[in-house]
Structures are given as structure tokens and as C-alpha cells.
Fold this protein.
Amino acid sequence: MLPKRRGFTLIELLVVIAIIAILAAILFPVFAKAREAARQTSCRSNLKQIATGFMMYAQDYDEVMVPWRTAPNFAVPTLYNGLVSPYIKNGIEIIDPATGAANLGGVWACPTGKAAFGNVSQGNTYAYNYYVLGGLVSGSTTSPATARAAPFDASYNLPAPLASLGRPAEIILILDGPQLCRGPWGYDNASVTDPANFVWGTHQPGSGNVAPSTTANTNAVTKTWITGRLTNVAYCDGHVKTVPTMRLVHKGIVMENGNWRGELQGGPNPANHAGWVRDW
């Protein structure tokens, strides 16, 4: 006679399933946070390599920052990306030398940002502080005093000499954001209507839109974009850190449908543009 075997009861099975479901509910968010933390670390590593490339470029060019572009077109070889990439491994893949078409990707793409921003500037998800450091486009005659508002002057027409940077460890070099980012002066200059006047954080992304407050410059133009509460920033001394996005943008910018907004002031006082001007 075969021995009697005792199996699990339905109640026991349901208890085990319930325990597994509870553990999954607890652990999945932890795993998601761990993945995002890994992406954030990878992003900081990318920015560190890029910042080192900027510094190497400056040493080879009489301690002057890379121009943001050297021709009126936007071909990658004439943009800051193309000018700095020879100093960076895994930088730019040239697709068509005749047209300058390229796929940046690699070190130029934040693992979090490339999914949120899509094919911005052919995969570039890092934004150079070009109004402050990169000078004007070759052949341009527009003065920062009129195009960029106070506290800029004619010295900003040319790429920044390292000696002009009053606090290199606190001046933004390049940060998370699509293509190009600009400081808080856009809301203090009635002629500026470009939607790229803002900083779009990448990490801890939300789903709400970015919009001007009711008291902001009426000429300001915005677009809906994914925002993040944290932004990785490389500074002009080469170090990289993660900072709250709101510390980088004008107080007139309302993010995440009004739940939080920028902290920086505007006007002619350079101290109100902390990190966004050469000497403050």
C-alpha cells in the first residue's frame, strides 16, 4: 500500500502567493531606484569625461574655452561636441563627412535623458553653458549686451579665457539637458523668446509640463517637456555633482504643473545668476 502524501492546501498556497506579492511590491521600487542610481552614476561619469575633454582643449588653445560653434550651420564637426570629441573616447560617430551628419550617442548621451529627450541634436543630451563660455558664432555681429541682457558685456563675444572665470568651481560648464541650456537672464530680456532658455533636469523625472508663471516675461516661450528634480552638472574646474534642478533656473519658471519652481533671481546683478556668468 502506497504511503499517503500530504500536499499544500489552497489556503497555504494563497498565503505564499500573497507573501511573494508583498515582497515584489516592496522590492520592485527599490530595484527601480537602484537602476536609476546606476544611470545617474553613469551620467556623472560621462560628464566627467566631457569636462576633462573641455579642459584639455583649453590647454591646447591658449587656455581659452571651446567655441560653441565655428560656422553658421549646425554640422557636428563645427559644434562644441565635434571640437571637444577628439579628446574623448567613445565620443562621436561621423555618419557622412560631406554633410557633417553624425551620431553622438556614447558619452554624449545620458542613460536617463536619451529616453526622455529622444533624438535631440542627434543623440546629444548634454547642454553646454554656451552663452557664457562659448562666445558668438563665427561671423556673427550680435552683441551679448543686447541679445543676452545684463550682466553680459562685449567680452562675452569671444570664448572665455580661463583667467576670466572668477569661481571656476562654481561656474557651470555643461549639464543635463537637451542640446543647449541658458541661464536665468531669459526672463529679464523682453527680446528673448526661445524655448531653450530653461534647464530641463534629467534625473528623478516627472510628467508635468514646464510653464512661465503669471508674473514672468510675457514674451517668454515654453514647451511641454519632461522635467527632473535632479540635474548632473560639470563645473569649470572639472568636477561633477548632482544638484536640485530648481537651483539652476529662474524663479519665473514653474515646473511639474506648479508644484515647484526655479530659485534664481534675474536682473543686472551677477550674483543673481550664480553659476551662469564668468565672474560673480
User: Anything to note?
Assistant: Residues 11-273 form one domain.
